[in-house]
């Protein structure tokens, strides 16, 4: 196999004989001549196959190898819609490397009208459609741009564990039985919240990670079942305004670069107090677009001045298990507003938290806060949310860490899937995730969850309860 | 809080009054004057505290805020060992933001002599030591360099699922009970092997990912318990030589940039057939350094021409469960050498596989292969390793995918932890992982695995077996 030429580079090869490797995208007969549109991950090129009797019969989606000469197209046949539209390749030799049977659904359409189950079962075909290729390539560019922006600003990328302990984000954990310590379980992280705060204690003042997070809660259009990805970031020695300014500057520069056709409606982004948002828009994630039908309008805003607490409900299984009065409206590490500290003792529901939510076109695409860094305040919050002695014990490592010199710190975690969904105007996060799970938790292509052997269960010291 | 000045930038501020935020690294009294070395994530700066009665009594590791004026140091007091050695800060006002009690172990040493259990329990302090800061910052730079190299070469970064199905990498899986489909389990991926092959079928011809992988197998110095990180990459329309050349060029350019003091002994890297390696060096991962005591020698080599199969052992619980004759020496998707196809029927142990192992200073830091892309060959391999009908069924999605136009493809997966360990000359991967688990599977800082509630188990439909 000779070095593969990327199709986007073919116009540079006019007059040369080249080897093409790619997929048959479409086939058109024109008299006795066959025109193939050939596809690779960089573009589409037209191949002219003469009726000389040496070429095989192609089918759509075959993987082929074609040797041919790059020729300029006559002026009136130039196709401005594709990058290689000024040229075509005159096939001399061709072979089918891998034949494709007929795909179970069309690949040249947007695919919105096809059932999600079958799209996920054949995701490796569904991802071939132009829209999905664009989404996944853009996703790659999006995270590269985020990384290069943050690295330039002196951020360090640090991975935190996936096998870890239950984290108090208010959702249900996925748990993993331990073989070495039978009867005990790891949990998958709902977010790296505690680790990122510990990294601040460790002196990595500017941390980020494109982090995988896990929540066993029902699927929605803006939330995939099971796992999602967030830009997790945290900074030391900052105030809330520093975080908001940095994130605004980052998103603004990335939108300019990757989505030049989109317009950010208002800049600087409005910062709306929570109470005002509820009063004026009836929601804490207002959609500030003027024309919701214009796909190029982007209306970012911040919601700030959230109440630190909400009333605890019976469903709050993590905090006071519904028996306490207050539950954190963000999470239990959010700092109260410094002006409201006294209210913690007198009227906790009036305390504002230093929380900030990032909203784009009516979607909450990120949330964060300035964190508590004083052990006595953290202790007080634990009491107010009704933590038992045992629950406090579970977080004693945080209180302990805070006794060794902890910097004031805060952060935010924009969701990658959700931000891309909103930026691209896609109807669901599953249109920007390569291999999403279905609503019932079934994985794409592979049929998981699945049964395991009795030996595996015995090794782990667990048993399935018969219903 | 004003915008924080990074300590590395202080020499630019001579004559100016600035705000410093950081940790007290060391304290020296000189007559009545106190000298503080203050630390942030970019460096160390000397602060001179006058005996004017307004300054607090500092302790090591306190987080402090100091207002002072940057002054040049007299010529004979310049400290060339630190970036800020030409200046010092004359403190005018100072406060302790967060006091530190005495750390449980010294932070100014290398830390090699301290017990690993206590280092992991207080990892947020252990990571403050200079060596660990350097390792973690270098790790961040290392993955950034990898990404920017690959993106320039037209690779797309694509995340694959963590909640997935058992993968046949020969180690024990971690499994996760499903709440929505009781009695069934997800598995954490031992590698993204199948997903990356499916991405080749999907037409993403050059894929990479800094991927988290999970194996429930015993800890070693070059293997952390539980999870590790690999650069997972795969390319379509390539031959083995293309992969080897690309990886060699990538590592060579990154070593030059990030480790300029290191010398690569031989270039191009030797490619040693497996049989020759065993005969000449007694191992398939030879250490080709001339002087093993020189910390700056890097000897890379490739091991190639592995046998496709080894004899199956009783412990092979994944393949034929010890009952078949042959087990894959790499994994079951590795392509046989095209010259040896006929031997599959006559003498399988003589078949060479298109496998390649990347070796650095005696450590296997990566392995990969050209994959099978023909369903009939894959089927034959399944038979030879003794797959049952049910096991074949578990991989039917791969065989099915291969009927829709699959490009020839191959890849490699260098371990990030292990490569960094070898590059830095660290004695264990745990010196380059931010929060590693202990040998017994206990997580750093947080005490997992831990007990879960009866309600959680009931929801998942499992029970702990009493011993």
Layout of strands and helices, then pairs:
The structure is a homodimer of 467-residue chains.
Chain A: E1 17-30, E2 33-40, E3 43-49, E4 63-72, E5 87-98, H1 116-121, H2 123-126, H3 130-152, E6 156-157, E7 175-177, E8 185-187, H4 193-201, E9 206-215, E10 226-236, H5 240-258, E11 263-264, E12 271-273, H6 274-281, E13 297-298, E14 300-304, E15 309-311, E16 326-328, H7 343-346, E17 355-360, E18 363-370, H8 375-384, H9 389-394, H10 396-401, E19 409-414, H11 416-424, H12 454-460, E20 462-464
Parallel strand pairs in A: 3-5, 6-9, 11-13, 12-14
Antiparallel strand pairs in A: 1-2, 1-4, 2-3, 4-5, 7-8, 9-10, 10-19, 14-17, 15-16, 17-18, 18-19
Shape of chain A: elongated
Estimate the mean pLDDT confidence of chain A: 94
Number of strands of chain A: 20
Pick out the low-confidence regions of chain A.
none
Major sheet of chain A: size, sense and barrel closure?
A: 8 strands, mixed
The number of helices of chain A is 12
Query: What's the number of structural domains of chain A?
Result: 2
Structural class of chain A: alpha+beta
Query: What is the CATH-assigned architecture of the largest domain in chain A?
Result: 2-Layer Sandwich
Top CATH class of the largest domain in chain A: Alpha Beta
Query: Major sheet of chain A: order of its strands?
Result: 6-9-10-19-18-17-14-12
Distance between the termini of chain A: 57 Å
